[in-house]
Amino acid sequence: MEFIKNQNWRYATKKFDKSKKVSIENMELLKQAVRLSVSSYGLQLYKILIIENQEIRKKLQPVSWNQSQITDASHLFVFCNYTKIKPLDIDNYLNLTAISRALKLEDLKGYGDFIKMKLAEKSIDEQLNWSKCQTYIALANLLSACAELKIDSCPMEGFEAQQYNKILGLTKQGLNASVIATIGYRSTEDTTQHLSKVRKPIQELFKNI
């Protein structure tokens, strides 16, 4: 199975070759992979910023634990979850569903009311945590797609979200930086690429019931 082979190939790249860039064609494939990610109710209540601008990345590096990946990688992905879920977000999804599946909008009203009811049961903090979790699913698709294309990647939680929100003007857009990832091509100087992958044994990780 090529998927398993490629997952064994990938690792959290610590040092990128700054001279190598991901092609436009591969970037479009990665966008499609993230776009097709699983999302609760299919809502996709997040936005992904793809940052190439070096000046912006230099501003982000100090609030990213000064990690070199921020400036050396080909691209920086910033996954941003919605900070507040509005009824309009559900309505927009229903409109898109009606168009995509050639359905009558009124036939989707019951489903839309159900989603609104279930989300209304959550507190603001619970909604925020829920929408933040959704971005990690999209992140997983990005990492797996990168491995398929032999593009190196590094998921990163080592950053100051509030500073990202400030520098990128996310708060006024109703967004929050939840998780980031850098992609590109590994440097020959990155010694971590030669380390064995450490994972729990199958028998310890799984339990049949």
TrEMBL record:
<keyword id="KW-0288">FMN</keyword>
<comment type="similarity">
    <text>Belongs to the nitroreductase family.</text>
</comment>
<feature type="domain" description="Nitroreductase">
    <location>
        <begin position="9"/>
        <end position="185"/>
    </location>
</feature>
<dbReference type="InterPro" id="IPR033878">
    <property type="entry name" value="NfsB-like"/>
</dbReference>
<keyword id="KW-0521">NADP</keyword>
<keyword id="KW-0285">Flavoprotein</keyword>
<dbReference type="InterPro" id="IPR000415">
    <property type="entry name" value="Nitroreductase-like"/>
</dbReference>
<dbReference type="Pfam" id="PF00881">
    <property type="entry name" value="Nitroreductase"/>
</dbReference>
<keyword id="KW-0560">Oxidoreductase</keyword>
<dbReference type="InterPro" id="IPR029479">
    <property type="entry name" value="Nitroreductase"/>
</dbReference>
<dbReference type="GO" id="GO:0016491">
    <property type="term" value="F:oxidoreductase activity"/>
</dbReference>
<protein>
    <submittedName>
        <fullName>Nitroreductase</fullName>
    </submittedName>
</protein>
